[in-house]
Amino acid sequence: MDTSADRESIEIFRNERFEAYAQDLGFMWRWEIHSDGKLMQEGCSLTKRAADEAVGYVVAYFGRIRGVGPD
């Protein structure tokens, strides 16, 4: 995730195939999911909890179609 000095990305998910990072932009959370070093999905949520939930749903979906589920 491209970050500026004042907006640090935090890791919100990781398993053997996927990792996800989020940034608090003050008015929303921007998140990205990566797999094998490639951006798979990005999105925005109003809260950190909503970002965690959204990432969980997307990872579960990609896990089903790729045969690797979330931890």
TrEMBL record:
Top-rank taxon: Bacteria
NCBIfam families attached to this UniProt entry: sMetMonox_MmoD (TIGR04550)
Record's protein name: DUF1508 domain-containing protein
Originating organism: Skermanella aerolata
